[in-house]
Every structure is written in C-alpha cells, then in structure tokens.
C-alpha cells in the first residue's frame, strides 16, 4: 500500500464524492453543457497558475537535489497542462490576454491559497499531500473516463470532451502521477507515526473537499 492509497482509504466516500462527482460523470457521458465546461476550464487555468507557484515553492523548500528535480518535473507537467487550456479556449475565441485577465472565482481562490498556505506553514510532505488530489486524482479520473472516449471513437464519433480525457489518461500525465505517488512514499521514508498520519489525512481531506467544490462551482455557473 502507498501513502496515497492509505489517505484515500482514510477519507472514505469523500474521495469518490470528488472523483465521481456529477461534473465528472456528465463530462464522461458527454452530456456536460459546454458553457459549464468552458467556465471550469477558465478557472482551472488560474488554478494551474497557482499550482505552478506551489511547485516552485516545493523546489525552494527542498533540502536536496533529488527533491528539487522532482518539484521541477511536476512544475513542467503543470506548464504542459496549461497548453491544453490555452488551446481549447483559443478555439472559443478567448484570447490569451482575456484568459489571463479572467477573475478567479471564490472556490478557485479558496483551494489554491489553501495549498499555498499549507506549503508555507508546513513541510514538503504537507505540501505534496495537499497537491495530490489534483496531481494524482486527475490521473485516476482520466483512466476511469478513457473507455467512454474510446467507445465514441470506435463508433466513429468524436467525444465532445475527448481531448480533455486524453490529456489525463495519457502517458505523460499518468507518468507524472506515478512520480507524485512515489514522491509521497519517499518523503515518509516508508512510515509515519499515527499522529503524523492523522495530520496528513486532514490536509488530504480538506484538499479533496475543495476539489469537489471546484467541480460544483462550474456546475453552479449554469444556474
């Protein structure tokens, strides 16, 4: 068992509340309204900008070259991820200037600043646990949704969100997620005390709840 698996088990259904959220289900089915997805993607772009800062902070807080390299690799993966967002928003006629100038919504601010605050006040393990629902959870979601994208292709159809699914089910993101999983175990040196584990669970639970709230924020944009 990995630390990540133990953290998921510790928070129970709160994990699936995130990974199987209505937003995710509708995205996989291809029934998610496009304006909802567009709202999500703009906010997720700003989300990634702040997560890039968090990984830069992780590099700063690292005490050895291996950890600095890990943080740099994670930062590069996020920068690659932003290219998907810029590519898709450009198709809708949103310029890069407009994308950068879009206001961050309340949940976007709450989540990203929670991660940054955790990184500032805690250690490197605290920060990577706060990042993990995104850095590893999206890979899990991508794998879960990939069969729906594949079925559409097999039927000669184009899944409306196939490009997004392919990004997170693809080799590059999956490799980055595996590296993030291994990083958590490396930072614990194979074990943590019960007290330390409980503190990590609370960080993981808070970040996972904020991930679910991030999906909900997009759904609420249609109200």
UniProtKB/TrEMBL annotation:
GO terms for cellular component: cytosol. The keyword Ubl conjugation does not apply. The keyword Lipid metabolism does not apply. Keywords: Hydrolase, Thiamine biosynthesis. InterPro entries: Haem_Oase-like_multi-hlx, Thiaminase-2/PQQC, Thiaminase_II, Thiamine_Salvage_TenA. Pathway: Cofactor biosynthesis; thiamine diphosphate biosynthesis. It catalyses: 4-amino-5-aminomethyl-2-methylpyrimidine + H2O = 4-amino-5-hydroxymethyl-2-methylpyrimidine + NH4(+); thiamine + H2O = 5-(2-hydroxyethyl)-4-methylthiazole + 4-amino-5-hydroxymethyl-2-methylpyrimidine + H(+). Catalyzes an amino-pyrimidine hydrolysis reaction at the C5' of the pyrimidine moiety of thiamine compounds, a reaction that is part of a thiamine salvage pathway. Belongs to the TenA family. This is Aminopyrimidine aminohydrolase. It comes from Corynebacterium stationis.
